[in-house]
Amino acid sequence: MVIAVLAMNRSYWLLKTEPDECSYDDIERKGVDHWTGVRNFQARNFMRKMKKGDLALVYHTGDQKAVVGVAEISKEAYDEPVRGFPAGSWSQVDVVANERLSRAVSLAELKSRSDEFKGFLLLKQSRLSVMPVEPEHFKKILKLGSKKPGP
DNA sequence: GCCAACGTTGGC
DNA sequence: GCCAACGTTGGC
């Protein structure tokens, strides 16, 4: 299943969220979630490059600091109206839950494998909330997350 | 165009 | 609570 998904020609991303505001549970519960509130140009520009069917790691900030699941882009970037800004200033995408990881993959764990995750923006640019993920990195995180916790 | 001051995010 | 890393703003 995961293999077939990765064989398709799509791009991979990571979306950060405060679990208090919108957790992976919330995305599952809502069905379709509007990914709004991005107020950083770099992050916005990455969102605008997303294609329907692309997959995104969902990362919880705050106390958890871990990748918890995968979401799929169900609608490409469209306008997010924000008071005080001209129309078209900001964008949102729609996402749906795709697959919850069996085990959350923590930031600490990724850092401890820094040679396997060279160039991963999550480790380099801690403040960026939307970022591309190299297919190899994406695959590795899914693999780490599919493992059950050891005995 | 430069830079100081300030604000925000997010990890520690 | 602190701080590093950015981003933004405004004075010059």
Quick description:
The protein is of the alpha+beta class and 151 residues long. The protein has 6 helices and 6 strands; from the N terminus they run αβαβαβββααβα.
Annotate the secondary structure layout.
Blueprint: H1 2-7, E1 12-17, H2 24-30, E2 32-35, H3 41-49, E3 55-60, E4 66-79, E5 91-106, H4 107-112, H5 121-124, E6 130-132, H6 135-146
Parallel strand pairs: 1-3
Antiparallel strand pairs: 1-6, 2-5, 3-4, 4-5
The protein binds a DNA duplex (12 and 12 nucleotides) through loops.
Would you give an account of this structure?
The chain is of the alpha+beta class and 151 residues long. Helices cover 29% and strands 32% of the residues. The protein is built from 6 helices and 6 strands. It has helices at residues 2-7, 24-30, 41-49, 107-112, 121-124, 135-146, and strands spanning 12-17, 32-35, 55-60, 66-79, 91-106, 130-132. Strands 2-5-4-3-1-6 form a 6-stranded mixed β-sheet, with helices on both faces. A hairpin with a 5-residue loop joins β3 and β4 (66-79). It is globular and about 45 Å long. It starts with a helix and ends in a 5-residue tail after the last helix. The mean pLDDT is 92. It binds a DNA duplex (12 and 12 nucleotides) through loops.
Characterize the largest beta sheet: strand count, sense, and whether it forms a barrel.
6 strands, mixed
Average pLDDT, all residues: 92
Strand content: 25-35%
Apparent shape = globular
Give the count of helical stretches.
Answer: 6
The oligomerization state is single chain
Extract low-pLDDT stretches. none
Look at the helices and sheets and give the structural class: alpha+beta
Distance between the termini: 26 Å
Helical proportion, percent range: 25-40%
The beta-strand count equals: 6
Radius of gyration: 15 Å
> Largest beta sheet: what is the strand line-up?
2-5-4-3-1-6
Order of helices and strands: HEHEHEEEHHEH
